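Title: Request for sanity check on Penicillin-binding protein 2B prediction

Description:
We are preparing a figure and want to confirm that the structure record we downloaded matches what your pipeline produces today. Could someone re-run it with the sequence below and paste the raw structure tokens into this thread? We only need the token string, no images.
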Amino acid sequence: MKQIKKKLKESNPFRNRKYIAIVLYIFCFILFFSIFSRFAWIMVKGEVNGENLVSNVHNLYTRNNILQANRGTIYDSAGNPIAMDSNTYKMIAVLTNEWSTSENPIHIQEPEAVAQILTKHLSMSEKELVERLTQENSQVEFGSAGKNLTYETVSAIEEELEEEELTGITFEEKKSRLYPNGIFASHTIGLAQSDMENQEDQTLHGVLGLEKEFDDSLSGKDGWIEYQRDRFGYVIPDQEIKEVEPTNGKDIQLTLDRRMQIYLESIVEEVNEQHEPEVLTATLMHAKTGEILATTQRPTFNGTTKEGIDQTWQNYLTEYTFDPGSTLKAMTLASAVEEGVFNPNDYYKSGKIQVGGGTVHDVKPEGWGTISYLEGVARSSNVAFVHQVQKMGLDTWKEHLDSYGFGQPTGISLPNEYAGSNPYSSVLQQVNTSFGQGISVTPVQMLQAFSALTNKGKMVQPHLVKAISNGENEQKESFDSAEIPTLLSEKAADQTLDYLTETVNSEVGTARGYAIDGFEIAAKTGTAQIVGEDGSYLTGNSNYVYSVVGMGPVEDPELIFYVTVQKPKLNGVGHGSHVVQKIFNPVMKRALEYYSSEDLKSEFELTYENMDNLIQKNTQEVINDEKMNGKNVSIIGTGDKIVQQYPLANSEINNSDRIILMTNGAMTLPDLTGWSRGDVIKLSELTGVDVSFSGEGFVESQNVSPNSFIESETKITVTLSANE
């Protein structure tokens, strides 16, 4: 009985509960202390699992936006824009109604009606559009047809949709590069575009030509802005906003003359269509300064539409090497004159000569009998020039070739310049260089070498960039002519030019067909063999590089014009030189007319200022304002108040920019004669009218008469011509 009582006492439930309560109190204390310690630690350190809570909260309500810098504009020598920033648009259709409200639907409701409007402006059929607009997606894009849309196309679509009260089409804006002149020294100017793989990054990067070479100068530096928003997305008032303004890219002024460039492009395009050469280059250079005044090539491309870009990415001015042929004889002749071995009235037997284990033939293998060396120059006799190299010595001739810069880049401001080559190994190869075979050159190297003849024995380095400025009339860097000494004396250079007139003036001269009425020029033609894939020279048909260099006026040369045409289809002409003449003669004549009576130093210096705000100002007062005197101002409309303007207020303009002002009256079309393609595009963006172009260059005619009333539905066709 006592044992039973003892067990009952030991198993007292009240005593057990006391122990349990003590344990629970201790556990709760430990738990509370742990939680308190954790919170205290978080409050002191502001971190959880290595993450900064203060930073996370800051990021949650803070917005950082990139302020994108504007890319610098590229201008021609007279301040006309060649490459400039623009905006393009991508079209998107919203197909789901989950983002709409009954009062404000934003999705496609009538796909057939929307498709009828879109097919007018996109290269897609109505059936294709309906299929896109009825897909089971939240939204849909339209491929390449819906990308890179212009402002005028977007405006026209939006206006028609609004008239029909149709919804569901939206546009995303994207910064792009505009090349308003179309095909205009395209490989030389180059290309800038955004990263195709990173759609979020709209920064433009130069990928070709001057756009690539001067990408750092043109790009500028992006800025940023930081501000706070509440949980509903509204900007918190009276906050301190942090902002760093973007630094816009620098502007570049080139040496290109728009008049000559457009004319050259038009002539070259005609020849390219008629004769379809594999490669064509044509470059006009100022003989005394090395300024490239105009340059083009075929194949080429349109910088804005990218049409033709897949044909070649090479800039043939610097990235195309070839055997120059007989045009190099101009430099052989100069060296022989300098070394005193060229005697024009001495005689030799033409036809062929054995040298270095091989035979060198004239173009007429049986020759012209015994003739003077001056006649040999006129006839472009290979044998005559081999004699000159033999007389001066092969080592001396090599020194002259090196002094002309062959085998070395010229340093022109373009990427990927080739150096060419001159192995100068076997005796036969060495003498072959006297008539331009066995040595590879680039067009820009040839231009530099020819400048020694027009510049008293000193070469001038070819260049394309005249100045780089920050767009505020403060010139940061200018590019002056750089002279490079050669082994030629002034006397030898002048005498060589005189001898080279024989090729044009002599009855037997190979350049008779290149004579220019009213001007005397020195010239040298070339017909060079092309090295095939197996290392041997191609023969037959037109498998040659036909070329010519002309320098004039010969009494005081201002211009050097060099043209090469590789493997053209003759199509009705007897010889490849006739194809070259179709380019050389009209362009050289036009250039000599332009520059023979002009000072080639630029008459135009870029001056910048901020555009005034003219909105709501009296039209007549603006016209009479002294600040508007001398500026290209065009008025659209008959009203008494200015309601729109281009360029926008406070934007930087230079003294060549055309200012377009729209009044509150009915829209009228100005006389567009002489306007550039870029100016007409500005007019189209401002008015919303649809403009189509025919040709290249400046406006020659328009289908709607000047001062006619126009509306946004008006369709205008303008014809462009190379004649300004």
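Thanks, this matches our download. The chain is about 30% helix and 25% strand.
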